[in-house]
Design goal:
Elements (H helix, E strand, L loop, with lengths): L6 H14 L6 H16 L3 E8 L13 H5 L2 E9 L4 E11 L3 E5 L4 E5 L5 H20 L5 E8 L2 H4 L25 E3 L2 E3 L7 H4 L6 E3 L2 E3 L3 E5 L20 E9 L5 E2 L3 E2 H11 L3
Parallel strand pairs: 3-6
Antiparallel strand pairs: 1-2, 2-3, 4-5, 6-12, 7-10, 8-9, 11-12, 13-14
């Protein structure tokens, strides 16, 4: 049996997963549950590794100073696909961004209490950082293709900012990193903070990101928990922007083309690399 992982297959997996696990306690819970489903579905055709250390980087286990750099040498889910004539290596990076809710799963008699996480600017930077990391792994032939999967009930992350009127000019210090529905990147493109970003915000995330591929963010409803009596306080939201609605987006990362849409070439990319000192 030949198994091919692509965006369509990953979307089908997410649709299956929502019936088993509509809510997760944490990003690790999400990671384990998705990996379990993949192994359960494809059995002996795949091998699964969690938090795979890439490129035999011994320092990736370190908890000392500089751990942020070392941590980036791991991939959340690593899949070895054992096809008849070849093997393919897949890397999956996950993000689980939550707003504060309490929800009772009556089926399993389990209560989920999710916390409010870091600010949106940090969430967005980290989301695109995963994409940059997967592109790097592909360039180094550590994986053949990758997927960045984002799951959230924070509707301000997914909503097109042009629909909001929170600011007169509708700009923020992290516009370059936003992950709203319909966001497009035609790489190579440099994502960097606006000069208004505070040192506290950019600490540990000050380096611009260079995204080389072409991507379009498309959010889909994962699960709507507002139906029935599932909300622990018994209340139902008045609209679909409720924190009880979870959405997911999947970006497929493949080997970059030498010439990219818009006439941008790898020569331009190399100039960016030289300027920002990235490998």
């Amino acid at each position: 049996m030949n198994v091919e992982f692509n965006k369509k297959i990953m979307e089908e997996l997410m649709e299956e997963l929502k019936d088993k696990r509509p809510v997760f306690n944490s990003e690790d819970d999400f990671k384990f549950s998705l990996a379990w489903l993949i192994k359960e579905k494809y059995r002996d055709d795949v091998e699964i590794r969690l938090e795979k250390k890439m490129d035999n980087n011994k320092d990736a286990s370190s908890s000392e100073a500089g751990d942020q750099k070392n941590k980036n040498q791991r991939v959340d889910i690593f899949i070895i696909v054992k096809n008849e004539n070849d093997m393919e290596k897949i890397g999956i990076e996950l993000k689980y961004f939550t707003a504060k809710i309490e929800w009772r799963d009556n089926k399993n008699e389990e209560t989920f209490i999710l916390a409010e996480q870091a600010a949106n600017d940090i969430k967005c930077y980290d989301a695109w950082k995963d994409v940059e990391r997967l592109e790097d792994f592909i360039d180094r032939d550590l994986i053949n293709r990758g997927f960045a999967i984002w799951l959230t009930n924070v509707n301000s992350l997914t909503k097109d900012p042009t629909e909001t009127k929170k600011r007169n000019n509708n700009t923020t210090h992290y516009d370059a990193f936003k992950i709203f529905n319909g966001r497009e990147i035609n790489g190579p493109e440099i994502l960097k903070w606006d000069k208004k970003a505070s040192p506290g915000t950019t600490k540990g995330r000050d380096k611009p990101l260079i995204i080389r591929g072409n991507y379009k963010v498309c959010w889909k409803v994962y699960v709507d928990l507002s139906n029935g009596e599932k909300n622990i306080d018994g209340k139902r939201p008045k609209n679909k922007e409720s924190k009880m609605v979870f959405k997911y987006a999947i970006l497929e990362v493949q080997k970059k083309q030498k010439k990219i849409k818009g006439g941008k070439t790898m020569k331009m990319y190399r100039k960016m690399v030289s300027k920002y000192g990235k490998e």
